[in-house]
Design goal:
Elements (H helix, E strand, L loop, with lengths): L14 E6 L2 E5 L5 H8 L14 E2 L8 E6 L5 E7 L4 E4 L1 H4 L7 E5 L9 E10 L13 E5 L24 E6 L14 E8 L1 H7 L10 E5 L14 E4 L2 E9 L8 E5 L4 H8 L9 E2 L5
Antiparallel strand pairs: 1-2, 1-14, 3-11, 4-5, 4-7, 5-6, 6-9, 7-8, 8-9, 8-16, 10-11, 10-13, 11-12, 12-15, 13-14, 14-15
Length: about 290
Amino acid sequence: MPLRLAYAITTTTILLILLCSGVAAIREAPLSAKQQERLSQGVSGSFQGRIIDGSDAELGLAKYQISLQGANYYDHMCGGAIINERYILTAAHCVYGYNPDYLRVATGTVRWAEPDARYFVEEFWVHCNYNFPDYSNDIALIKLNDSIVFNEVTQPVALPTEPLANGTELLLTGWGSTELWGDTPDLLQKASLTYVDYPTCQQIMDNDPMNAHCHVCTLTTGGQGACHGDSGGPLTANGMLYGLVNWGYPCAVGYPDSHASVYFYLDWIRSMMKGPCQSCHCYASNYPN
């Protein structure tokens, strides 16, 4: 069972929300002098009430939302999105290092502990360039061992057909902590975020080398954003899946969050769904039982 996150963090570190190898982990890197100065000038955001600072999601709002759970205790580990009856998209750091037999996918609920159904994982594929360069290619495709039964609370989300326009409003949903190092909320949370294009995002982030074209940047002025437990969760607009939560500064402190861009990885996703191949960029789990 993943351990509860219980470490202190300062505003001079960067947080990657990740769970791997059965242990909750944090990746840290120094902020630049400009970033530290900006944080010291009162852009710390709010650590109160949300996904950070979101609200409870109503049943049926995000029918594609899943909770990735461990088989032993069904604890919530990460989020993800249903893209058809057999496949789920999530972040690579949510599944990397796990045996597929250990993982369960819970669907059709706003209460992760009370799903409409749970499914076994047959296999998953992590992008072969995951974390090369640092914090990039953080995307994985999960294949279930049975077809999801679609109903009024469980449906797939469409893949994007065009890139995002700067300033687009997106919906973030997840069971991530509603405060830094807080517990997983019982109810699914929602927040409205704004897409920030790459040049603008890099200007705000002082040309952070860990932010790349493969990411979708989001920002709000109300202290909203992703936190630990939201990882892999869906970011949608106009009924299409545009992002999967990857990393950000520790939980809504006033800097953009970075999400894996689903539009950027469309070719990879489609090639993986066609079946294993030698030329595809993938890393199959294939761990021994």
